[in-house]
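Tutorial, part two.
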Amino acid sequence: MKDIITVGEAMVVLNPTATGPMKFVNGFEKKIGGAELNFAIGCARLGLKAGYISRLGNDEFGSYIHNFTRGEGIDVSQVEFVDGYPTSLNFKEIMEDGNVRTFYYRDKSPTLTMTADDLDEAYFQQTKILHITGIYPAIGERNIEVIYKAIELAKRNGLKISFDPNIRLRMWSKEEARKVLSEILPHVDILLVGDEEMEIIIGEKNPATIIEKVKDLGISFIAIKQGEKGSVGYFNGEIVTSAPVKASKVVDTVGAGDGFNAGIIYGILHEWSLEKTLHFANTIGSMVVSVKGDNEGLPYLVDVQARLGEVERIER
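Running the prediction step on this input gives:
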């Protein structure tokens, strides 16, 4: 029995070896990226059992991602290689203050070869939570069909559905995102969202207003990410504002939201209080931004416990 499964697109990420505008950067390091995969890695490092559903190009980059994912302890039995569709690429531009811009090369994504019929219902019968994002359906029309089939299989087999809109305006317009993502919301049990994303989807940015609107859709757990301002959560009629956890330094903000999501899911699965869950997730987010890379900063459970002062870490 797995704790979570997720459907998404993995990419090779080319991280710059220097900060500043990309046109002046001469070197890049090959890494792994993709929001859903980052989330799965974050969960696995916390000790959760994770599974990943995807397609990769039948090329060296695809093999690199496959081996890396398997090495993280993530089940890749539902990942297949396809010919004629190169593994997607993502070049990053990192400025001195840690802010990041991304440049995608994913027009012929291998995930476009996957159909709704390719999803294995037996795989859904062996897990507790399905995690989806708004990135996968933004890749193409067929991916929207796959997401709805995944939702159908999850509902039929008693899974909770976790959803992060993860809006990428380089991939689709606000209008397109609003149409597709607002139709997914009524199927969601756990909403993990940024306040600015909800302004696009429902026209509201205030956390209290967001909670009032979306809980009426049947969403039982809501976590609103506010970056350096912390987070706000709702569960069982309780609203909690969780203060931010100061990062030791900020060098790369990518992956912080995925780490936060993993922390929330960990708290939910362990039936923690809302307050404890939010603080745990905030702590992970603050740890991720201090490390360069999409998932290099995602911590192991013992690292988070040490940061929280719950265990003593002996350095030498």
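The radius of gyration is 18 Å. In part three we will examine how such features are distributed along the chain.
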